Amino acid sequence: MAEGQAPAGYRNENLLFLTDEQLRQGIEAMFFAYRGFTADPDRILADMAYGRAHHRAVHFINRAPGTTVNNLLNILGVTKQSLNRVLRTLIEDGLVESRIGKADKRERHLFLTEEGKALEQKLSDAQRARMRMAFRDAGPDAVAGFRRVLEAMMDKEMRFAYTRLKDTTT
Amino acid sequence: MAEGQAPAGYRNENLLFLTDEQLRQGIEAMFFAYRGFTADPDRILADMAYGRAHHRAVHFINRAPGTTVNNLLNILGVTKQSLNRVLRTLIEDGLVESRIGKADKRERHLFLTEEGKALEQKLSDAQRARMRMAFRDAGPDAVAGFRRVLEAMMDKEMRFAYTRLKDTTT
DNA sequence: CTTGGAATGTCAACAAGACTGACGTATGCT
DNA sequence: AGCATACGTCAGTCTTGTTGACATTCCAAG
Q1: Which domain, by its residues, includes A56?
Q2: Which of residues 75-134 of B touch A (CB under 8 A)?
Q3: Which of A39, A109, A117, A131 could bridge across to A66 with cysteines, CB 3.0–4.6 Å?
Q4: Minimal CA–CA distance to B154: which of A130, A140, A118, A112?
Q5: How far apart are the first and last CA of chain A?
């Protein structure tokens, strides 16, 4: 399908010709890499009664302590029912604390307990280790490119959420 | 946690210092980008009775026509039972054809029918469109870096499968 | 040649985690 | 007072992953 019409990776002034083949390789790279990306935390979680959904919740609560349920919902892109199931078990197990908002009492602000922080550390240590290796292997210029492509691949709202998170740190 | 110990992105000779913060940004970029990556095909599939698993199967059957079930299993990284359910519906619906192996009659060789090819086209057109935009936005150097980091992030066996696929194409 | 083990694939049952829809409660705002 | 918002929950469904059990086929050792 659509074979050899454009020269592979040909670059003419500012225009970049991308063959279906190059794009497909990008797609497959994304697929295989994502598997590696989630593999280590998944292994840890499998031993406990938790799954990837718990990891995501814990990650973003750690990232933005005091965030509201609604906030988390938007970041994670799931329904409140789905998030609630996960959140409930985390609260029951004492990993997450839910505090009623001071200004707006309808809101619940979410925090990790010490135990929750410990799990987050364990999970993100594993994930960061892989990311660190990949970054080192590929080198700083590749890392910059990696990030640029990923940002361009996000939906607009997600790019917004991403940059907002990125900037609220430090 | 581990704040501001190393200067951000500091680079000293060949050694690259990576802060937890930089790594976490990479992790989040990966998370948000993957959502975008799957969003378009998912939207198409939602209208039909199919899901992401069907997309993956169709993609790799198209990529390597005549592949066996076992082969596909290894690439997709799921159990044979899980793949079988998906495959069965695809075969029933006439999108995939399963031919008993000539040399080894235990094996089933998988092919897309015309209808199957049509669906694959539709799905990958959508996914390629996003990838093309991202690649164009980011530029060729960024694309090279993107691929290098992703490859470094894969599990070893997946990197092997990836490069083998990559090379079997013209 | 037969027999037993390994490989391949199918069927059945179950669990996690997503979804929709409906509803209840507390709170905030006009 | 009345409507909107934020959150929680119950019930039911769907996709997609899992194990376990089983049938078929191949191959190699006796």
Answers
A1: 16-138
A2: 77, 121, 124, 127-128, 130-134
A3: A109
A4: A130
A5: 49
- ipTM for the whole complex: 0.89
Answer yes or no: is B46 within a domain. yes
Count contacts between A and B (CB, < 8 Å).
Answer: 213
Task: Residue A63: list chain B partners with CB under 8 A.
Answer: 24, 28
Where is average pLDDT lowest: A10-24, A149-163, B84-98? A10-24
Mean pLDDT computed over B14-31: 88
Distance CA A109, CA A102 (A): 9
Please write the tens of the pLDDT for every residue from A73-106. Answer: 999 999 999 999 999 999 999 999 999 999 999 9
CATH of the domain at A37: 1.10.10.10
Phi-psi region of A112 (alpha: psi -120 to 50; beta: other; left: phi over 0): beta
Q: What domain count does chain B have?
A: 1
Answer whether residue B83 is part of any domain: yes
Please give the pLDDT value at position A3.
43
